[in-house]
Automatic annotation (TrEMBL):
The gene is NDUFB9. Pfam families: Complex1_LYR. It is a peripheral membrane protein. Residues 20-76 form the Complex 1 LYR protein domain. Belongs to the complex I LYR family. The lineage of its organism: Eukaryota, Metazoa, Ecdysozoa, Arthropoda, Chelicerata. This is NADH dehydrogenase [ubiquinone] 1 beta subcomplex subunit 9. GO terms for biological process: mitochondrial electron transport, NADH to ubiquinone. Accessory subunit of the mitochondrial membrane respiratory chain NADH dehydrogenase (Complex I), that is believed to be not involved in catalysis. Complex I functions in the transfer of electrons from NADH to the respiratory chain. The immediate electron acceptor for the enzyme is believed to be ubiquinone. Mammalian complex I is composed of 45 different subunits. PANTHER family: NADH DEHYDROGENASE [UBIQUINONE] 1 BETA SUBCOMPLEX SUBUNIT 9, NADH-UBIQUINONE OXIDOREDUCTASE B22 SUBUNIT. The keyword Acetylation applies. GO terms for cellular component: mitochondrial inner membrane. The keyword Transport applies.
């Protein structure tokens, strides 16, 4: 079963029943962690959640198994925490997107005195830029010069 929170047209992969059950279990545990601040209370509820899943783990009838999965999804959706706990560097977390990756071309604008502090690095960098340009021109050809209109 697909994620009910994600629209059907955005789902790009097909997951097996076992993957969907594991995904539901993990989301149920994360929801319980968001709901219960005390670790002991959370562990108690995690044990109850595990017992619910273990009760039906040997179900052979796929129609019944799918129905149980859909009921579990509905139960989770009905009991979702209003402010779920998120990892800080994950999407939705407070630190997501804060570490900016500086692009390589910024080094081209360093002052020569700044580059002089790292002569071996910049010598190797210039060599690699030249090799990259040669590989590009060998594969795609030299760029065509256009006259201004």
């Amino acid at each position: 079963m697909a994620n009910p929170l994600l629209p059907k047209h955005l789902q790009t992969t097909v997951k097996t029943h076992a993957q969907n059950v594991c995904n539901l279990y993990k989301r149920a545990l994360r929801n319980a962690l968001s709901t219960h601040d005390d670790r002991a209370v959370f562990r108690y509820h995690a044990t109850l959640i595990r017992a619910k899943f273990d009760k039906n783990k040997d179900e052979k009838d796929l129609r019944k198994a799918k129905m149980l999965l859909e009921e579990g999804e509905k139960e989770l959706y009905a009991n979702l925490h209003y402010q779920p706990r998120k990892f800080s560097y994950s999407p939705g977390g407070i630190n997501y997107g804060r570490s900016v990756t500086i692009p390589d071309w910024v080094l081209d604008f360093w002052h020569p005195l700044e580059k002089a502090r790292y002569p071996e690095y910049f010598a190797r960098r210039e060599l690699r830029k030249q090799q990259y340009t040669e590989r590009w021109e060998k594969k795609y050809g030299k760029p065509v010069e256009h006259e201004d209109y």
